[in-house]
Specification:
The structure holds two protein chains of two kinds. Chain A is α+β, with helices and mostly antiparallel strands. Helices cover about 40% and strands about 30% of the residues of chain A. The longest helix of chain A is centred in the C-terminal third of the chain and has 35 residues. Chain B is globular and about 40 Å long. Classes of the chains: A alpha+beta, B alpha+beta.
C-alpha cells in the first residue's frame, strides 16, 4: 500500500510542466489509476488473508443461560433460547449479547430452523460483519436443561478479502475504459482498411466484426436475463393442479383423536367441504379466522 | 363451512399438541403419518387446501396459507355456487 502512495507521488513529481500537483494528478491516465487500484486490491486481499489466518479464534462450547465466553476480545453472553414461528418454519432462536470492554455492542440471534414442508432442519448463523472483524455465531444442539452447544467465531479482516477482490475488478474496469485502448483499436482497423484494396467495404467489414464481437454476447446475455426473470416470476405453486375437475383421490385414514374411526372422502358425499392439509409448525386455519 | 384437517407427516402426539396450542377449527382430523395420501393429492407443502364438491370432485386448490381474503373472495363464492 505504501508503494502505491510513493509511486503516485514520484509520478506526479516527474510529470513535466508548470502545473500544480493536483492538476498533475488529473493528467495521469485511467489505465495508470486502474493499475494502482488493482494493486491496492491485491494488498488488501493479502492483508485480509494473513490476518484471518493468524488471528481468528473459535470457541465451541456448551452454554447454560447466563454463561459467557470470550473470543477475540469480545464477550458473548447466552441469554437463552426461545421458540418462534416463521412463515414456513419453526425456529429455536438464541439471544446472545455481544460486548467489548464491558460495553454491549450488539445482540445476535442465531437460529435452528425446522422447515415443515421439506422436513429438514437448517442452522441459521448469526453474522455481524464489520470493517475490521466479522463475528459468526451458530447454534448447535440442545444439551440439557436449557443449555445449548454454541459455536462462536471471531474473524478479523474478512471483509478485506472481499474488498480486495472488488478493488481488483474495479481497477481492471478503469484500465479498460482508458481512451488509448479505443484509439489503438481504431488505428488498427484503419491500417487494415488501407492494406486491403477495397477500403470502404473493408472498413465496413472491420467495424461489423468488432460490432458483432460485442453485440452477440450482449444478445446472449439479454436472452439469459429474460429467461431467468421469467423463471423467477413463475410461482410453481400457481401451476393449476392436475386434479381440478377430477374426483378427489380415495383414502381411508384414522381420525386423529379417535384412531379407531376411519375416515374416507365418500363419507362426505352430498356436501361441499374443504380439505386442509396441515403440518406441525405451520400455522393452520385456526390462525386466520373461523368460518 | 365444514373444514376437514389432514395432519400431514406428524406424529399423533405432536399433531394433538399443535391443535391444543393453536385451537382446532376442524370438523375432524385425519392422520396421514407417512404422507401417502398427500402424494396422491400432489401436495407441494403444508398448508394446502382443496375444495371438494357434493360429488367428490375437486374444484379448487389453494397452495399455501388460507387467508381470510382468499376465503372471502375465492372460496366462499365458489361454495355458494356449488351449494345452489
Amino acid at each position: 500500500m505504501t508503494t502505491v502512495v510513493v509511486n503516485i507521488f514520484e509520478r506526479v513529481k516527474s510529470t513535466s510542466g508548470q502545473l500544480n500537483p493536483l492538476q498533475k494528478l488529473g493528467m495521469q491516465t485511467r489505465s495508470y489509476y486502474g493499475m494502482q487500484l488493482a494493486h491496492l486490491g491485491v494488498a488488501a486481499f493479502i492483508v485480509g488473508v494473513t490476518i484471518v489466518t493468524g488471528y481468528q479464534s473459535e470457541q465451541d462450547v456448551r452454554m447454560d443461560v447466563g454463561d459467557t465466553i470470550v473470543a477475540g476480545g469480545y464477550t458473548f453472553r447466552f441469554n437463552g433460547v426461545t421458540r418462534t414461528a416463521g412463515p414456513n418454519y419453526q425456529a429455536e432462536r438464541a439471544e446472545i449479547e455481544v460486548s467489548k470492554n464491558g460495553q454491549v455492542t450488539n445482540t445476535m440471534y442465531p437460529e435452528k430452523r425446522a422447515y415443515t414442508a421439506a422436513g429438514n432442519v437448517m442452522t441459521e448463523t448469526a453474522i455481524d460483519s464489520g470493517v475490521f472483524r466479522d463475528l459468526y455465531i451458530s447454534l448447535g444442539e440442545p444439551v440439557s436443561g436449557g443449555a445449548w452447544s454454541v459455536r462462536v467465531y471471531y474473524k478479523p479482516f474478512v471483509s478485506w478479502i472481499w474488498g480486495g477482490a472488488v478493488l481488483m475488478a474495479m481497477g481492471g474496469g478503469l484500465a479498460l475504459s482508458d481512451r488509448r485502448y479505443a484509439l489503438a483499436a481504431r488505428k488498427q482497423r484503419e491500417a487494415l482498411a488501407q492494406k486491403s484494396q477495397q477500403p470502404i467495404p473493408a472498413v465496413a467489414h472491420g467495424s461489423e466484426g468488432s460490432m458483432s464481437r460485442f453485440v452477440i454476447p450482449l444478445i446472449l446475455f439479454v436472452v439469459l436475463v429474460v429467461f431467468l426473470a421469467i423463471g423467477l416470476r413463475r410461482d410453481p405453486n400457481r401451476l393449476p393442479s392436475a386434479l381440478i375437475g377430477k374426483s378427489a383421490p380415495e383414502f381411508a385414514l384414522p381420525e386423529l383423536r379417535e384412531p379407531s374411526k376411519i375416515i374416507s372422502p365418500n363419507q362426505m358425499r352430498g356436501k361441499v367441504w374443504l380439505l386442509n392439509v396441515w403440518g406441525r409448525g405451520v400455522s393452520h386455519v385456526a390462525r386466520s379466522t373461523r368460518f | 363451512m365444514p373444514i376437514y384437517g389432514l395432519s400431514w407427516k406428524d406424529k399423533r402426539e405432536d399433531a394433538l399438541a399443535v391443535l391444543a396450542e393453536l385451537g382446532d377449527p376442524y370438523v375432524l382430523n385425519m392422520s396421514d403419518f407417512d404422507g401417502r395420501v398427500a402424494i396422491d393429492y400432489g401436495i407441494t407443502g403444508a398448508p394446502e387446501t382443496y375444495l371438494i364438491d357434493k360429488n367428490g370432485v375437486i374444484r379448487y386448490r389453494e397452495p399455501g396459507q388460507l387467508t381470510p381474503e382468499i376465503m372471502e373472495k375465492t372460496i366462499l363464492p365458489m361454495v355458494r355456487e356449488l351449494n345452489r
